[in-house]
Design a protein that fits this description.
The chain has 299 residues and is α/β, with parallel strands linked by helices. The chain is built from eight helices and 16 strands. It has two domains: 159 residues, 3-Layer(aba) Sandwich (Rossmann fold), CATH 3.40.50.2020; 128 residues, Rossmann fold, CATH 3.40.50.2020. The structure holds ribose-5-phosphate (R5P). The site of ribose-5-phosphate has 14 residues, from strand 13 and helix 6.
Length: 299
Amino acid sequence: MIVVPGSSNLLLSLRLAQALEVELAPAEIRKFPDGEKYLRITRPLEGETAVLLQSLAHKPDEYLVELCLLAEAARGAGASKVVAVIPYLAYARQDARFNPGEPISLKVVAELLNSLELDAIVTVDAHLHRLRDLAPFLQAEFIHLSASKSLAEYFIKEYKFSPNELAIVGPDEESEALVAKAASHVKVEHTVFVKKRLSPTEVMVTPKEEEVVKGKVVLIMDDIISTGGTMAEAAKQCLKLGAKAVYACCTHPILVNGALTKIYLAGVKSIFASDSVPSPVSCVSIAPLLAECLRRWTR
Ligand code: R5P
């Protein structure tokens, strides 16, 4: 097996290669003067399983095209199997036609991935709120992992709270599965809020079970922090309900438009995330999770 990174997340690619104890083989990647991407895999991949790692955050369109070029180049270089590890799967939030004239973007991305004839696609906490499962839309084997247990474990170890003084909160009903998995892993109570989106940057959250939060140290967990609006509103709501302290975490720290500042200003003590997307708070590595999955897959 060989890890061939795209340019989106070199640190995670390196960590993954180290966890798998395999070679990291960066491709030469640059732009032509007209802005088109050029890349070249500089070693033969004859008979190898090529693991292409590309997280589609920050420059989703550019990284998606890079992934397509990498997949074709890997086959051309002789790889016997090609696996795309896409920790953050962009376009998953547009998984329905919410307004007339809109595309179902996730379906378009799935069809693009199908054209690459991949053997497997691995992703982490994909935003599958309405579709639930992408497997029926993909020709490659679809492996969906979750960083939620690793995030909860990190919180307990790093901050040394005992489970009975804690509660894990999901900022919306769609986060129920993520939060329930984390909470049962570290044996703490959990609840989710109900979220109403007012605009791309504004949301309103309301509690369902107020008593779960009152007097507790609360960890708010979400799949994505983008503008930070959701996390900030959820934090304010927790403090209003009498939480002793509030911490925030997510799998994919996209963090645009001053998200961290917004969340800290809402009263959150500390923010942490997985390294699915590079950021100043990406301190929980998903490399062991990905490595274990790939080892199982190749067996
Ligand atoms: C939406 O349903 C997601 O789970 C996140 O809550 C959302 O993407 C976060 O976005 P923002 O940080 O912009 O509120």
